[in-house]
Design brief:
Length: 261
């Protein structure tokens, strides 16, 4: 598949990527080499995203998109390079330490709700990691106030929820932990179109009104780029193209390769 990417020209450097974010850079990845076991998947990878900005990662399967989320969260082997939040290095912290100290939450692509627990119990599971049970109850109440779909089913087992409601519950459970950064893996996967719109509306609300920084991987490149402020196109563990979401939607190379254009 590599030949068709050769037309993409010069890859963006760190300065180009930095220019897509404002002065208020929230999360930085510098020169990261990371992977699983001894296998390196990301090569000299850089990333810059500002506070309350959204960044979408697109590219073919195996390009390293999820590996970026896993590296930020603490699921990969990091061979070299740095990950920082607000200038504080977090490269080698565990996922629990990252959540507690700098507020990174990961919303997995697979269905990770507990089907036999109630909606409310599922929400509270988000707080156990933080050892702040009282705070978790308050956060859960806020979420139930905000999302009527969950409130109406708070005492029902999660297995009665539709696919879209389950995804809403997964996102909400991460919010109980009061994160500042949300890592979202394939938010639209397996959902009907109306639920996809709902999930992106919720993410938009979290970014604009609650000032969350959002990094997402999305197979539906069109939807992901329409939603996001900036996008990186990954090929073989490196960024081949980067730009504002709107600009990438108009880019002929991106269109041909990823948008069915």
């Amino acid at each position: 598949m590599s030949n068709q990417y050769e037309v993409l020209g010069k890859a963006p450097d760190a300065e180009d990527l930095k220019n897509l974010s404002s002065e208020d850079i929230h999360l930085t990845i510098k020169n990261l080499n990371a992977g699983y076991g001894k296998m390196e998947i990301l090569h000299n990878f850089d990333l810059f995203v500002s506070k309350a900005q959204s960044l979408c990662l697109i590219g073919p399967n195996g390009a390293g998109k999820s590996t970026i989320l896993h590296s930020i969260y603490g699921f990969t082997n990091i061979f070299s390079g740095k990950i920082e939040i607000d200038g504080k290095e977090i490269t080698n912290l565990t996922p629990a330490e990252k959540l507690k100290s700098v507020g990174i939450a990961y919303i997995l692509q697979d269905n990770s709700v507990f089907p036999d627990m109630t909606v409310e119990e599922n929400l509270l599971m988000g707080g156990f990691i933080k050892d702040k049970t009282e705070e978790s109850y308050q956060e859960a109440e806020k979420i139930l106030d905000k999302y009527e779909r969950l409130r109406n089913r708070r005492n029902q087992p999660a297995k009665v929820l539709s696919g879209g409601e389950r995804r809403l519950l997964e996102i909400s459970r991460a919010l109980v932990m009061k994160p500042s950064v949300l890592l979202v893996d394939e938010p639209s996967i397996g959902l009907e179109p109306r639920y996809i719109d709902m999930v992106f509306e919720i993410l938009g609300d979290l970014q604009k009104n609650e000032k969350k920084t959002i990094i997402l991987v999305e197979q539906n490149a069109k939807k992901g780029l329409e939603f996001s402020d900036i996008g990186y196109v990954l090929v073989s563990g490196q960024t081949a193209i980067a730009g504002r979401g709107d600009d990438l939607l108009k880019n002929d190379d991106v269109g041909r390769l990823f948008l069915g254009g």
